[in-house]
Amino acid sequence: MTTLLYSHGAFQDHDPGEHHPENPARLRAIETALARPEFAGLVRREPPLGDITVVERAHPAKHVDTLLGAIPPHGRSAIDADTIVSEGSREAALRAIGALTSAVDAVVAGEARNAFCAVRPPGHHAEPSRAMGFCLFNNIAVGALHARASHRMERVAVVDFDVHHGNGTQAIFEADKNLLFASTHQYPLYPGTGAASETGVGNIFNCPLAPNAGGAEFRAVMETRVLPALDAFKPEMIFISAGFDAHRADPLALLNFVEADYAWATKRLMEAADRHAGGRIVSSLEGGYDLRALAASTAAHVLTLMGL
Questions:
Q1: Domain that residue 149 falls in
Q2: What total number of domains does the chain contain?
Q3: Which are the catalytic amino acids?
């Protein structure tokens, strides 16, 4: 089983400041973990700059222009209190889009069974016309829409196990019955969305978890809600918003996952992809702010994608 890894040095040039939780050290920790001998089989690729017209499948052109125009030529600027951009943010954001679209193209072409995109900034909080929650563009939604637009896939699913609800992905998907969004997340917590009652047009499956829930609760909602939803929907491709901040060591939330939980969930999603999507999965990094936990959880996720 071939797994592609998309990353680029430009992702470390998106620099919201050393005291910001979503900082370049996150990718350095992941790169160190994925340099171990057991990852020698990864096929590593550098993504191109994403095309603006592809971004505009998820975000209005005016918003894209305004957001890119807010990126300073030097220093940093605040989009909001949490979302900070620097002079390297434009290239990072566009290469994140390039990673997702390139991964989709490669997996659909049969060059690999699946792919992991180690990108920054993350994306799942980015709403159609609003950057927020450390996110500029909604990378995973752009990738999913690219799969439909460029590869004639009718049904595409995103599963999000970040500790925070992917409000942006939900907002982009919620009126389209051929896009499925399933999310497990701590609730209540930032950004305040993600109640089980938020169902879109029957295509949104929110699985809120109470503070201090752990792997048992996570596995239960995956088994009883997320996986049955995927089986009923029969996606032609599955995307994973792979946030690792539900780990028990993470400082920004209060769930208690461990690495084995991420490996288990990845395996179950791979099985669903085998049943319905020819095994096709594209995963993209979202949150995770304790560096050791992030590195270990990402390693468990990628090893499982590799079939190890």
A1: 3-305
A2: 1
A3: 125
